[in-house]
């Protein structure tokens, strides 16, 4: 269908702008930067067209709305030199990503203006220097603002009009801006063409997904169902959204100014004039409208989708108005996107195509979790420009309504991975849309018996699959796979594949599930398992399942249809497809109650995956450089990387293999250990101390002193930035074999409440994979001291009983180094006394114990040695007696009470000494004078001293030391 008018557009450089990936230890600032751009904005090469015009920029504050909802929008209009009243040009409105502003799209605006467009970039209400509150693209506010801007363009004589008051205009945007372009086309028919990128169809389905049940429009490749009225709350992504939008004044990480340096209006100084409710609203909700803030607070607190929350999300969802969109639409979606998956674009495509509007779908290897490469960026840039050229300027080639996707590869997604998809596969149509053939699906048999799946109380510990903004757990050095928790998942495998299978879209599988409560929260995913057993989770993507109405009888489970995540991935010949169904995922809200589900394949042990496949023609990349030149560069880089890896590996092996000669006598040594984060925060600084065999060491310090960070580094959970931690002379670190000699109890018991204490201990030991006879189970049970209660369910235990079982769990295998965090929490005085004796006797066998506790009196009575920390640094170390005996007060006992006045006079004559008479005797506060000097002065004066003892407790010493620090 040839267009009546055309205009050329360059997309908001959103998902198709490349950015070098941050390191695996990316900070919160990096995550927020990804969210703010909404599309991974970055500097990209500017094509020659961008320099073809002289461009003038006009700043303007545009009023919009009325009454209490009136705002001023901060805009910049970019006008090419070629646009005039005699030769008006089509216009483009650029909408930015969530948390950004007009500055986020400034370079794109100049580029588009250089192509001959009048381009309007603006900050949405609540962002940048625009006033007002965030309504999440509410049709009453943000969408109405877009119409106001179209009125502004229609009033200009250098903007081409289709009719009076109707500018020839396209809208492009990414993420938040992409949804605005869709909603704008639905509510304002003056919008002539749109190019939404990595955006949503339904905010409800995106933030409360549940991929269960039949699929509406299952003939497309990535159609994804949404269980009505329920879902699994995507808490991490939601928290990032709300965190960015709730910062007063628009600053990302706090501070006293808005995004553009504008000062934030603070509450008035006069307490009488302060509206407490308004202040609380501002601090709690930041720039969000009250109804959106309330919906978030309710969702975050309960993790439940209520009708009120759904109403707020649905009104900002294109899904509710797709039947109104007839503008030609180019949908760009990323395959590396745990926020808005391929199913969101699929739903938009189906809804708009049903109206007869031209729709083209592009998938690319990137998204909210990972940016596209430069080659991908350039190709998508030209695709979007070509789309607007055809539909707004009647120039160029007809882009058609085809489908393009990255060539499937078996590469793992995540930080540090080699990006696949440098080639693009093109198909004539998006399968299943109006006029196109339905998607082709092949069946892959999978097998496996029914399996119990435990969901722990509170959902802790939880599996780690995706980290918002960073993608799969491969970003954290987990080898391209997720971190699954033993006992919390069921797995079903195919036979090794005879030939490669290229999955393009969302596979489906039927499961049979039973739950004692009739409900279950589960997470389905599809792994690629290599011949060596290595597992890759494509895109780091999971499919949440919120199940209700389930059978409670495992022998008669309820069958459910499940749609797995939409992916583009090649499963090579010899590899295995593995369907994993787990009970936890750290990115989602999880049930508080513990339970055991039964999960099986529907129809018995055998089932089948329905796998979508798309045939198409592979396209070469758009780079103009000769491929052999690029190959040569890659080969040279590969050789350089290989040489560096070999040298580094040798160096590392030499370092790791070095064992300290006194390692067996010094079970733990910190040497110059520092832990710093990229935002500048230093949690631990130059920490050095050592612990000898047989010692019970107390680690003391106020909150924020660095104790927990030090323990986590010791246990290999995080790596130090500098320095070395050695355990029995071997370097400690994630996965270090020497960690098998360490037992720990840190941050919660992690016990399964439905199991007995004894079964919890057995389950924990079985997960280590070590022989049962090495557990020393009976010795550990004796430590717990629970008698017959050891065989009762843990849910009937008191907090103190749970604590004792957890400590016994840490002692399984009788580790040579025992690390305990707050071991006496929840214990009554007799139990504390018994625990004290257990730890002392344990160390007396030649083993070593590290205890972190806030109960200083218990540290004083339990520990032989102490390390005191404050502000990340060690401020004192020594025996308890040495720490207590440094300075402070002494109690002076006199053989003759008649000497009291003379003794007081002698002591007060010493520098810094004050004396007080008490019922216990004469108390001298020594400040600047040592105890030895004070005693010597009394003896020299002829005062008969009967007793001279320190009067300070560990608590006094601790407070004095921390105060001095």
Outline of the structure:
The protein is an alpha+beta fold and 965 residues long. 26% of the residues lie in helices and 25% in strands.
What topology does this entry show?
Elements lengths: L27 H10 L17 E10 L6 E10 L10 E5 L10 H9 L3 E5 L19 H13 L6 E3 L2 E2 L1 E6 L1 H12 L3 E7 L5 H5 L27 H11 L30 H10 L4 H13 L4 H9 L13 E6 L7 H12 L5 E6 L9 H20 L9 E4 L17 E4 L12 E8 L3 E5 L10 E2 L3 E2 L16 E6 L6 E5 L2 E7 L5 E10 L5 E2 L6 E5 L10 E6 L3 E5 L4 E7 L12 E7 L4 E8 L3 E3 L7 H31 L10 E9 L5 E10 L4 E5 L6 H8 L7 E6 L2 E2 L10 E4 L11 H12 L8 H8 L14 H12 L6 E5 L7 H16 L3 E5 L3 H7 L2 E6 L2 E7 H5 L3 E7 L5 H9 L4 E5 L4 E5 L4 H10 L4 E6 L3 H11 L1
Parallel strand pairs: 3-4, 3-7, 7-8, 8-9, 9-10, 10-11, 31-36, 31-37, 34-35, 35-36
Antiparallel strand pairs: 1-2, 2-4, 5-6, 11-12, 12-28, 13-17, 13-27, 14-26, 15-16, 17-25, 18-24, 19-23, 19-26, 20-21, 20-22, 20-25, 29-30, 29-32, 32-33, 37-38, 39-41, 39-42, 40-41
Family: Belongs to the ABC transporter superfamily.
InterPro entries: AAA+_ATPase (IPR003593), AB_hydrolase_fold (IPR029058), ABC_transporter-like_ATP-bd (IPR003439), ABC_transporter-like_CS (IPR017871), Galactose-bd-like_sf (IPR008979), P-loop_NTPase (IPR027417), Xaa-Pro-like_dom (IPR000383), Xaa-Pro_dipept_C (IPR013736)
Keywords: ATP-binding, Hydrolase, Membrane, Nucleotide-binding, Transmembrane, Transmembrane helix, Transport
């Amino acid at each position: 269908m040839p267009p009546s008018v055309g205009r050329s557009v360059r997309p908001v450089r959103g998902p198709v702008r490349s950015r070098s990936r941050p390191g695996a230890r990316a900070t919160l600032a990096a995550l927020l930067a990804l969210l703010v751009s909404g599309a991974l904005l970055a500097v990209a090469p500017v094509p020659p067209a961008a320099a073809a015009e002289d461009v003038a920029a006009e700043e303007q504050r545009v009023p919009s709305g009325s009454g209490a909802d009136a705002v001023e929008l901060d805009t910049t209009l970019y006008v090419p030199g070629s646009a005039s009243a005699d030769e008006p040009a089509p216009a483009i409105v650029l909408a930015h990503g969530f948390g950004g502003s007009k500055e986020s799209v400034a370079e794109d605006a100049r580029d588009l203006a250089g192509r001959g467009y009048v381009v309007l970039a603006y900050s949405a209400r609540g962002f940048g220097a625009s006033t007002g509150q965030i309504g999440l693209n509410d049709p009453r506010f943000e969408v109405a603002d877009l119409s106001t801007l179209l009125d502004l363009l229609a009033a200009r004589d250098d903007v081409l009009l289709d009719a009076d008051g109707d500018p020839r205009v396209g809208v492009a945007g990414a993420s938040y801006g992409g949804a605005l372009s869709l909603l704008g086309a639905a509510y304002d028919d003056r919008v002539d063409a749109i190019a939404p990128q990595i955006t949503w169809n339904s905010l409800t389905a995106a933030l409360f997904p549940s991929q269960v049940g039949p699929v509406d429009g299952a003939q497309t490749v990535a159609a994804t169902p949404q269980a009505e009225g329920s879902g699994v709350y995507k808490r991490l992504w939601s928290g990032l959204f709300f965190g960015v939008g709730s910062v007063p004044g628009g600053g990302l990480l706090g501070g006293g100014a808005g995004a553009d340096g504008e000062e934030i209006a603070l509450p008035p100084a006069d307490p009488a004039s302060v509206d407490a409710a308004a202040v609380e609203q501002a601090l709690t909700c930041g720039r969000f409208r009250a109804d959106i803030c309330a919906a978030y607070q309710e969702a975050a607190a309960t993790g439940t989708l209520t009708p009120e929350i759904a109403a707020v999300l649905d009104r900002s969802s294109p899904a509710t108005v797709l039947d109104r969109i007839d503008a030609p639409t180019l949908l760009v979606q990323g395959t590396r996107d745990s926020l808005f998956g391929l199913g969101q674009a699929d739903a938009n495509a189906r809804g708009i195509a049903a109206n007869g509007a031209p729709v083209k779908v592009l998938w690319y290897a990137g998204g909210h979790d990972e940016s596209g490469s430069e080659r991908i960026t350039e190709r998508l840039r030209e695709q979007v420009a070509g789309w607007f050229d055809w539909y707004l300027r009647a120039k160029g080639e007809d882009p058609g309504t085809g489908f393009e996707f990255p060539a499937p590869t078996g590469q793992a997604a995540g930080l540090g991975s080699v990006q696949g998809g440098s080639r693009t596969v093109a198909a004539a149509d998006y399968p299943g849309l109006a006029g196109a053939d339905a998607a082709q699906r092949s069946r892959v048999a999978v097998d496996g018996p029914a399996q119990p799946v435990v969901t722990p109380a509170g959902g802790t510990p939880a599996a780690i699959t995706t980290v918002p903004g960073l993608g799969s757990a491969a970003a954290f050095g987990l080898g391209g796979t997720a971190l699954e928790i033993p006992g919390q998942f069921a797995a079903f495998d195919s036979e090794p594949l005879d030939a490669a299978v290229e999955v393009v879209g969302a596979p489906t599988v039927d499961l049979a599930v039973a739950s004692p409560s009739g409900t279950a929260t589960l997470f389905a995913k599809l792994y690629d398992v290599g011949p060596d057993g290595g597992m890759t989770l494509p895109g780091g993507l999971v499919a949440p399942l919120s199940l209700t109405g389930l059978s409670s009888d495992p022998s008669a489970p309820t069958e459910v249809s499940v749609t797995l995540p939409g992916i583009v991935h090649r499963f090579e010949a010899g590899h295995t497809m593995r369907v994993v169904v787990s009970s936890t995922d750290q990115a989602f809200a999880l049930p508080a109650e513990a339970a055991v589900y039964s999960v099986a394949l529907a129809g018995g042990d055998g089932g089948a995956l329905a796998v979508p496949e798309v045939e198409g023609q592979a396209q070469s990349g758009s780079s103009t450089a000769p491929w052999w030149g690029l190959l040569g560069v890659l080969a040279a880089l590969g050789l350089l990387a290989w040489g560096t890896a070999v040298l580094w590996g040798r160096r590392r092996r030499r370092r790791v293999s070095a064992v300290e000669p006194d390692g067996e006598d010094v079970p733990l040594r910190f040497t110059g250990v520092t832990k710093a984060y990229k935002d500048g925060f230093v949690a631990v600084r130059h920490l050095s101390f050592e612990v000898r065999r047989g010692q019970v060491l107390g680690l003391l310090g106020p909150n924020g002193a660095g104790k927990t960070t030090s323990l986590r580094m010791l246990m290999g959970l995080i790596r130090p930035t500098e320095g070395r931690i050695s355990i029995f002379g071997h370097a400690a670190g994630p996965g270090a074999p020497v960690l098998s000699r360490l037992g720990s109890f840190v941050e919660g018991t992690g016990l399964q409440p439905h199991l007995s204490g004894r079964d919890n201990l057995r389950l924990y030991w079985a997960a280590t994979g070590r022989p049962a006879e090495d557990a020393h189970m009976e010795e550990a049970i004796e430590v717990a001291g629970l008698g017959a209660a050891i065989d009762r369910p843990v849910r009937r235990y008191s907090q103190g009983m749970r604590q004792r079982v957890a400590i016994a769990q840490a002692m399984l295998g009788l580790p040579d180094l025992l690390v305990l965090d707050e071991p006496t929490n929840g214990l009554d005085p007799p139990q504390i006394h018994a625990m004290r004796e257990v730890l002392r006797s344990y160390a007396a066998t030649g083993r070593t114990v590290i205890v972190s506790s806030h109960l200083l009196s218990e540290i004083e009575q339990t520990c032989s040695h102490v390390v005191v920390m404050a502000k990340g640094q060690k401020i004192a170390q020594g025996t308890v007696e040495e720490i207590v005996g440094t300075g402070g007060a002494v109690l002076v006992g006199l053989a003759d009470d008649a000497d009291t006045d003379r003794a007081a006079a002698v002591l007060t004559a010493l520098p810094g000494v004050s004396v007080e008479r008490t019922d216990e005797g004469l108390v001298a506060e020594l400040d600047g004078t040592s105890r030895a000097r004070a005693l010597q002065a009394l003896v020299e004066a002829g005062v008969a001293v009967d007793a001279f003892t320190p009067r300070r407790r560990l608590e006094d010493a601790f407070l004095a030391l921390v105060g001095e620090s």
